[in-house]
Amino acid sequence: MTSYSKVHAPADLFDGLRTRPSQVWGAVRLVPLVRAEPVEDLRLHPRIHPGPGVVDLGRKGSYCSYIPHSFVAEWSGDGSPAAAYGTQLAEGRPGQEPVAAVGLHFHRRMARQEARRRQRFLPLHLALEGYLALHFGGPTIAWEEWSRQAVRQGLSPRVEAAYLGLQVPGLADALSVFEIHPGQCGVLVYLADALAAAFVVPHPEDYRTLHPTLVQDLYGDLVHHYATLMPPVSDFRAHIAGTGVRSLGELRAAAAEQTDRWAEFHDTTMAAGLVEQESVWQPVRRMGRFTLCRFLPEFRPKQDNHIGEAIVDEHGRTVYLKTFRLSETQVRRGFLLSRLAAHDWHLADTAAEFGIDSAALALRLETAGFGHLLRQRR
């Protein structure tokens, strides 16, 4: 079993990356990240999947999901099963027209070594599976408060909702009209100035190739609501005072100072929720001098909480990063599960930590969608 280690989010999460001026389209703000020196010995490229997929988790079972792309993938075509579009009635007569269907693609695990130096993984699925599997086994002790289903099946089934990037208002337009900077290896996506996602790759050519896949990624309902309901955000424009600038060299220095000020403000303020969060990191697979990892936050209510996956080199520097911002409801669920697990799922002890009684905690569990875990008393 792979162990988790509690660490602070690396101080060098964006080490080697430089922040460039943001680009604004309505409520969408994109902040480019560029590398002075690209990573040459790790390259990423996409494989696009035109339909739903089934992910084989080995002994853990499997799950079905819409998987728009992976970063190295294999699948078979002839004779594969198909899923029907909607509900369709057919008499089964010979020679009848075929039922309208879409092919299913089968993926053997979310991270799988395909060759000696090739790794295929499903973007964000590593991170989301880590969140969905959080204390999935349910109560570790069969306290009388828990139902038989909770003791036998744990949290199965566990379901969370997300939006496709194409459904986020303004995101597709912003990604299509904004320029890609020379040396750009990443981007931070803000909606109504709330950090929605971070995306970093090793090489500028990888970013140019993978830039369109951002509209095929998953985004939480919180940032979707921000993009839908919030007004356009203001653009941070540089202002250089005319006094004291008497040559091109002084003008160049003044422009560089404004760029540095913006980068410092962004890195220490706008991105602070991601950079400074306490996280639990899990190594998933070694790839030569690189390690594929995923991480979970400490679930801080009413604060930014991001799950994600990363590839780090032997020095701990991030060469690949993709994150997903949890909604407040998702944070609350993770927080409740974490505190219950810390108290061996003893309801009274967990309630005492919150300063409430067991009945109030049971109501919180019901509101969070975990009511089926509780024994219904008559």
Explain what you see.
This protein has about 375 residues and is an alpha+beta fold. About 25% of the residues lie in helices and about 25% in strands. Strands 1, 2, 3, 4, 15, 16, 18, 19, 20 and 21 form a ten-stranded antiparallel sheet that branches. The chain has a three-stranded mixed sheet with strand order 7-6-11, with no helix packed on it. Helix 9 crosses helix 10.
List the helices and strands and how they pair.
Layout: E1 5-8, E2 17-19, E3 23-25, E4 28-35, E5 47-48, E6 52-56, E7 62-66, E8 69-70, E9 82-84, E10 101-103, E11 105-108, E12 111-115, E13 118-121, H1 125-132, H2 148-153, E14 163-164, H3 171-177, E15 184-191, E16 194-200, H4 204-210, E17 218-219, H5 221-229, H6 248-270, H7 272-275, E18 278-287, E19 290-297, E20 306-312, E21 318-325, H8 328-342, H9 347-354, H10 358-367
Parallel strand pairs: 6-11
Antiparallel strand pairs: 1-18, 2-4, 3-4, 4-15, 5-8, 6-7, 9-10, 12-13, 14-17, 15-16, 16-21, 18-19, 19-20, 20-21
Helix pairs in contact: 9-10
